[in-house]
Amino acid sequence: MEALDVLKGEHSALLSEVYLMDKQLTFLESSGPIKGARVLRELAETSRKMEGDLRQHTAKEEKGFFPVLETRLGNDRELVDVMKREHEELIRSLESLTTELNRMTKDHDTTKTWNLVAKLQDLKGELADHLTREERILFWLAELRLSRLDLRKIASSLQASRGPPGSLQA
Amino acid sequence: MREIVLQLKAPQTWLSEITAHHPTTIRILDCKPSETKDGVRQLVEVSADQDQLDKIVNDVKASPLVKEAYVVQTKRGRMLGSLLTESALCGTIMRTEAFCRSCLFHSKANPDGTVEWTLAFNKREALTELLDRMKKEQVEVKILKLSSVADVENLTSHQRSLVETALEEGFFDYPRRITLRELSKKMGISASTASEVLRRAERKILASYQTHEAIQGLEENDADPSLEDQILKGKRA
Prior knowledge:
Mean pLDDT of chain B: 80
Low-confidence stretches of chain B: 217-228
Largest sheet of chain B: 4 strands, antiparallel
Oligomer: heterodimer
Number of domains of chain B: 2
Helix content of chain A: over 70%
């Protein structure tokens, strides 16, 4: 199940990023204006990195994993469409968070954090729910339905779509 | 491989609870042990009228027999989910080298409130361990049947479901009652995939039949009374 392990590793990395943002937001809320500006920059950087990683990860799943799985799912193939829709929603949530961070950076605003808190809470909940559903339902079905050849095909496709050094790695 | 049929008191499960209150079809597609003692993760498929589905899912989530539930609606009237439940019996099976050939959660209760549970095992020790554990868990169990079976357990669930449907629909009858194209349409897969999956499954079944014949030959030449016979005699006494 090497292919699925690679994707699970990326899930953990994405969750770590969202928890890091949560931590940075707590620092921001307890910082004064000077330290706050630095923490806000770091937060924006983590958000940008996560956006890139999330796009790369979802593209990998949608191009390398889902097409192979879809052919083996029969009546359950709509599960893949549900996961794709959740990918789009996650990207939208993260974009919305990045937009709010950009506004705060532009306005040198390190105090009005309530919008950011709400957006991060939404993202955290959506991401955790999506990853759990994917691992507990979709990956489980994949373990049951995919042949070794399918898994090898997926593994090589994931290997081929690896991002530049420093990007999301399992 | 050997197969054993046990009779025991029907356990209370979330599935019996839900199907008693809702018109629904629930299938357990697979199960795995969880980190906790007696914890079992189940991959389930729920089919019901769309207007009933939300109520069913709410009741599943609210059941004290379900510790955790994640569900995804795949189409109208159909859901897939992963549940965490507790079952000392399933937990026992998962900790021995025996495995289920029928699901305890799906077993239909007899009028006397008992169910039959079919298990398979490769090593004789697995049966001893299983019965020991059941005794420790104070599960009253009666052995109904013990036999040797061909090993088709290495079929994937996809292969098994296709072979079962093919058999039911008369794909292996002469003349065929269903064509490959019709069968594949019924299963929601392409004809070429159905053909490949069936060929692979047939190969595994035939290979396992050869092994089974070889094992039976060895057993017939075994002069010592088998451990299973001793256990059966002990239980019947």
